[in-house]
Structures are given as C-alpha cells and as structure tokens.
Amino acid sequence: MIPAASPTAYDAARHGAAFLSRSHLGRIVVSGADRASYLQGLLTNDVVALKAGQGCYAAYLTAQGRMIADLHVYELGDVVLLTLAREATDTVLAKLDQFIFSEDVQLGDVSETFAQLAIVGPDAARIVAAVVPDLAIDRLSALPEHGNARAQFAGSPAIVTRVTDTGEPGYDVFVDRGQAETLSSAVAAAGALPMDEDTAEVIRIEAGVPRFGRDMDEETIPLEAGIESRAISFSKGCYVGQEVIVRVRDRGHGRVARKLVGLTLEGDRVPAPGAVIHAGEREIGNVTSSALSPALKQPIALGYVHRDFVEPGAKVTVGGASAVVTTLPFVGSRVM
C-alpha cells in the first residue's frame, strides 16, 4: 500500500508539532546487575558505554551477520528499555533468553504495559514540557539523540526519550497503557495535531529512515541498509555476527552486493513496494518503500540496487518511469 500524506498533519509535523501512537513497536525491559555486559555481547553497538539517561541505536544479528531486528536501547539507570518492531519482539525475547546462563539478567515483555506516543516537529519540546511539567523545555532541548529521562505524568511514572527515527525529530513519551487516552488528550490540548500512519510513513521515507519489516528484514546485512554508522560500534568487543561485519568492512572494503538507496522519479506515478528497478534491460533491484513527497512534489522511493548503481546521479527506471539515485535524506536531516 502506498501512503498518502494528510496536508494538515504533514504541515503540523514539519512546522509545528504532531503526535502519533507508536503501538506498532514492541518494548522489552532488561533488568539485573549484568544487563549491560550481557547485551554488549549480543548487540552491535556499545551498550556498556551507556550511562543513565543515555541510549543508542543497535542491531541484533545472526552468526551470519543478518538482522534479527534493529533496536533502540535506553539505559534508564536501573533497567534497559528496548524498542523494536512489534513483529520481531517474540523472536528477540526467545533468542535473548537462550543466552542467559549465570548472569544476573531478567527479561520482560512490556509491549502491552506501556503506551508510547511520539510528539514530533519544531514545537515538540514545548508540547512535551506542557504535559510533563517536571521536564523543562531547556532540558528537553538539550537531550541528545536517544537521551532519556524519568518523569511524572498525571501523578504516575513516565519516560521521555529523544527520537529521530520518525523522520522528524521529537520525543517519545511512555506512560502506563491505561493513561494512553489521557496523554493523547493532553498533548492535543497543548497544541499538537494528531498524525495518521500514512503521513508518518511519508515523513519517514522523505528522511530516508529504513524500517524493519519493510526496508530491512531477516536477510539484510546492516551494511546493505546503510545503518552501520549509527548502529555498529567498530571499537567494542565481540558480539554475535561481528566476524561477518568485520570481514565485509576490511576485506571487502565495505562493498556489499546490494545497497539501499533513495530514488526520485519523473512523472506523478508512485511505484508500489516490490516494483522492479532496471538499468537498461538489466534488473538491478526492487523498491521497498515509496510515496509522493509533499516537499519535493514528486514520487520518491527507497530500494535496493546492485552495487554498480549506488552512486548518486545513477540513472535507472522503475516501472517504465525514469528515476535517479538520490542522496539521502530526501528532505531535512536525521541528525539533530
């Protein structure tokens, strides 16, 4: 299905503030004194280096270097909170459990325990400060990407994290699931507009943020998706799948058989996910996500192409329409 942006919600996210339920995400809590060292040996990023209030983006790989999931990792001070694609949660929990031996580590699926609401846009800090008054605007604005803070909402515990994976930087607010409607009402009363999933998808695609289950799956190596600079520490100790990643980086000079790229297309027809990408008569890849960009006023897409066609400016065709490989992000920046 091709997403279409609501002009009102899109404008709010880009120029004011918009909010979106993140019910499509799974949530896992990792507790115990050994939680950081335990996760350090499993995930691709440097979890041990995280202090309370810090976080990172990471991947969980098979021994063959292929993705089981991508995750956001938040060290809250007494537990680690992981967020990931909902459909990967059960698999990740089962695999994590297999690696607990004598470590002081406990795992919990809190996907149904928390409600998670994203508030994004230039005015997001003001909105969050209005509904979570113990976090001032200055403190919220100073939070780095993946930074997190404990707070109170309506007299109950809450967690606020700084996020960019929505495509428009902002914050996720976690509250007890029973407070979901109260939180949404408070955010709306503070001046944010609701954002539908289609509009959120368009913004994500414009920002060039790959989504697990759509642009990445169990056959993807992180270097193919271009997430290695954010998700992988090349200076930490061993983790599952490291040997493959290092071999590709060092022996293969980082070259992989295919790469996720951005495509801008001529005309007004948006290609469907799965559409074949051609270079002349040669089939070189497939579209994974696509949308009509309100900012560029033309179709855009994410897709994998053969490594010979990854350079910006490479000319290809998608469904008969001319297209050009384009530097990501299409719009804005993922870096705060």
Structural class: alpha+beta
Rg is: 20 Å
The CATH architecture of the domain at 7-203 can be given as 2-Layer Sandwich
End-to-end Cα distance, whole Å, is 30 Å
Question: What average pLDDT do the residues reach?
Answer: 96
- Low-pLDDT regions: none
Q: Would you list the SSEs in sequence order as H and E? A: HEEHEEEHEEHHEEEHEHHHHEEEEEE
The strand order across the widest sheet is: 8-9-10-7-1-11
As a percent range, the share of helical residues equals 10-25%
- Which strand-content bin applies to the residues? 25-35%
DSSP summary: helix tally: 10
CATH topology of the domain at 7-203: Gyrase A, domain 2
- The dominant shape is globular
Largest sheet entry: 6 strands, mixed
Briefly say what this structure is:
This protein is 23% helix and 33% strand. It is an alpha+beta fold.
Structural overview:
The protein is of the alpha+beta class and 336 residues long. It has a domain at 7-203: Gyrase A, domain 2. Helix content is 23%, strand content 33%. It contains ten helices and 17 strands. The strands form three sheets. A six-stranded mixed β-sheet has the order 8-9-10-7-1-11. Strand 3 (54-61) and strand 4 form a beta hairpin. The mean pLDDT is 96.
Highlighted features:
single chain; 336 residues; alpha+beta; Gyrase A, domain 2; six-stranded mixed sheet; six-stranded antiparallel β-barrel; 10 helices; 23% helix; globular
